[in-house]
Structures
1.
Amino acid sequence: MDIHAIQERLREFAAERDWEQFHSPKNLAMALSVEVAELLEHFQWLTEQQSVSPESIDTDEIATEIADTQIYLIMLADKLGVDIEKAVHAKIDTNAKKYPAASG
Amino acid sequence: MDIHAIQERLREFAAERDWEQFHSPKNLAMALSVEVAELLEHFQWLTEQQSVSPESIDTDEIATEIADTQIYLIMLADKLGVDIEKAVHAKIDTNAKKYPAASG
Amino acid sequence: MDIHAIQERLREFAAERDWEQFHSPKNLAMALSVEVAELLEHFQWLTEQQSVSPESIDTDEIATEIADTQIYLIMLADKLGVDIEKAVHAKIDTNAKKYPAASG
Amino acid sequence: MDIHAIQERLREFAAERDWEQFHSPKNLAMALSVEVAELLEHFQWLTEQQSVSPESIDTDEIATEIADTQIYLIMLADKLGVDIEKAVHAKIDTNAKKYPAASG
């Protein structure tokens, strides 16, 4: 995923609408939280078995909620100068030390 | 960001610990929601001005929360077969139509 | 607030619709989380000053979201046998010890 | 539950610590959201069956999270002048019309 290209699109999108004024990290974190809840809503009354079944869920709508979540996460990381990919690998490294595999 | 490489690491990580049993989309959406709240917690008592200031926030800790959020989002998309990058661009296209720029 | 009377109404409401099957603590906690996000959504792009202003917020709609949140919180406490009022006073006591007032 | 008595305690608590400055509705809604996620965290990896079992959950800790959630909900309602009990009964009335019971 080309995060820089997405960041470029999102910066331009906000600038053209004069929306940068709303995009403080505090507000972006709130918006991220609201989008994740919309994702959660799809699963709240399903059993775990149903939650993986194409018959019980609307994958297109869920893909849109995943996109909304990803968009705000990228905007937040952009504002704070966080390199998401680097942070992800560092966190997986940390988790690997914290939770050694049984077969170790 | 090489999402496939991250998915590979995360699949292997879960398999080695026998954690796949916990990773239903329902549970992953819950875990995602919990991580986003940990991100939100960093900003809850800050003003918007403070939320962008390196003096008020711990960027390293926030990077770790962003990583946790990204990790669960990638795991959820993986389980559901969602192409995040494609979904993100489709959503920005939709938003561009929904909210036309003032300047046309 | 007569919590027992509300619990009675909610139990009857669920029983008449055969919805108890969906009301595991896990699911109720998810539903609670979704409702709180709907509350959060009202405030996400407002400044703190605007968030207290009757001109910027729709108090009737927010009251409805507060009600939804309270309803799921009562249902969850009911399922788990938690006495909310007692728990609230115990928590304020704990906080008073943890954060002594400056004036002593 | 005597909400007015709790509001009195919470107002006094905040005033003694000079914390009213942080308690905008926007910030209280964020804090509420963070507390609900701490509640959610107890249930994220449990099955629905486990989520109701005293052997799988720590009811005392969950009671404390329920208390935290109730406290911020009361503070938010207090700031906005919302009568929670009245709002709850109005919402149950609305739901009863929206979702008629099968047995009519």
Note: The mean pLDDT of chain A is 95.
2.
Amino acid sequence: MRIAQVAPLAESVPPRLYGGTERVASWLTEELVRQGHRVTLFASGDSETSAELVACAPQGLRLAGIRDHTASHLAMLAKVRERQESFDIIHFHLDLLQHAMFSDLTHKCVTTLHGRLDLPDFLPVYEAFPRMPLISISDGQRKPMPSTANWLATVHHGLGPGLCPFDPRGGDYLAFLGRITPEKRPDRAIEIAKRAGMRLRVAAKVDAVDEEYFRSQIEPLLDHPLIEFIGEIDEAQKGPFLGGARALLFPIDWPEPFGLVMIEAMSAGTPVIAWRNGSVPEILGDGVSGIIVDSIAEAISACERSAAIDRFRVRAHFEQHFTAERMAGDYLVAFDRLLSSPQGYTKAAE
Amino acid sequence: MRIAQVAPLAESVPPRLYGGTERVASWLTEELVRQGHRVTLFASGDSETSAELVACAPQGLRLAGIRDHTASHLAMLAKVRERQESFDIIHFHLDLLQHAMFSDLTHKCVTTLHGRLDLPDFLPVYEAFPRMPLISISDGQRKPMPSTANWLATVHHGLGPGLCPFDPRGGDYLAFLGRITPEKRPDRAIEIAKRAGMRLRVAAKVDAVDEEYFRSQIEPLLDHPLIEFIGEIDEAQKGPFLGGARALLFPIDWPEPFGLVMIEAMSAGTPVIAWRNGSVPEILGDGVSGIIVDSIAEAISACERSAAIDRFRVRAHFEQHFTAERMAGDYLVAFDRLLSSPQGYTKAAE
């Protein structure tokens, strides 16, 4: 199949540092190429891919210091549009701008929505352009969207090969990995560890916007013999950090549409203790690859029970559900489904 | 002529409080209606106009708490697009989003760029869609744009009738009116007044983003018998505030594409002392409606000389160049010029 992958320009594909969407776009692109498809990747010029790369900005916009990304994305979409006849499928990883420019090509366009959809700001575009086929990254992500949204499929993310290798032994500490931000509830993680009497290692970056929250709410909690704050870690450190843990704590307080760190932990064989919120119940096999909780007390009890979870079963759950190969397969099924409606796919017609 | 006016949705038209673009769009719309044109205004639903209003959001987005305005603007543009056949001219007051969606209708579309154009963020869109006819609000505004930009005209803003009425007497103080922000250089205004030994009244709002600048750089300068900080004032207070002044200080430190406050002061008969920057030399008649300066020393001397400027001549300069009637006339000439090229206007072809 001739597939265009249209990635955000905020970061390179894959990103130098952070950038969940660009990481997933990279894993998907590489896997589709590996499976023999002819893939063209529209992304920043410092991207690295085995697909054909169409450079749509010299480098990722964020690290280039570009603050308003709209113009660069519109210019990229003009390039996609120019070459549209050479693609069977045009797959967007952007939220908004393509709906207007490709409203006459929805029979071969599809958009994966990567972000949260519970902000009213974005709704007008989905109401104004109801024919664009949409893919959610979890069923939970769909909840706030209007009933008219043209959902084609849910495709859970999958991890590229070689990342977060399986560690059959694990270790004795709890892990917290992510940004320090109120929604991720690092304070809950710290309370759980202290009350469970277990070590907690916190690997987290602090964005400028969260500086004040970190200083006033989190830093005072760190001065405790069980708590170790190790700051930001890179991709290479992630595997050992997650693989060496007894369990990952994911005590989120918001409907996270997909928590990549959960499948990274599972890849390493480390079970996840997560709050019942957003996509969590879809991603965790409760009792198999982790434990879903609703309170601090349940989380403390889960920490104790987590030692009994078989790390080989956690890894098997990951391999069955969260590899890039499975993700690419799901996308190909969705693409086929779309192409079998040459007049354009509409969920309402199904 | 059947004219669509497409205004930003950030504020109502006219705006409740701030919003330079929405104010100008309102003055232009009302004047075009007054001259007998059939005008359709695409704007937020709480706008007030004698044109036909197409409500594209329940109320201005900023006061409604919507932070990302992209989706709402795309939905508005879809409405414009739907009705495009009923217009001879579609006149956009947005910077970016319409270029992609109307790239096949540039023979009857025109965009007034209201903002600064010296940020690299926006350039990709003007390079990707080079056929959209553009109108600058000053010649100075054009400088940073690529030579390929399809300029149709420069149209200076004009003020709606009844605002900032002429005050033949003026008063004894210097006035500063605007936001407290480093680019507007309120510190310069204060230094000039102190060294000239004249009273300065500062009518200015402080945005959240400028709080720190205000507290650390400006507030310490206010404790002086010649300086009076009166905070934010509304539209009704603006006329008396400007009309009662000896001169307006406009000591800007950036290439402001058009300083509305300069023509508001001129409307009241008050001369303007302004730094040579951006659009200033186009707007001020040097020695007629104000004095253009390059240094603090020149500004101090200008304060003394400003008493000799004839307020009737300032007002006459305003009436000749900066009324909404003159602005609408210029726009109609530009529209005619566009429509005389049915294949689409290109500056290069002239």
Note: Chain A touches chain B at residues 57, 66-72, 74-75, 77-79, 96-97, 99-101, 103, 119-129 (CB under 8 Å).
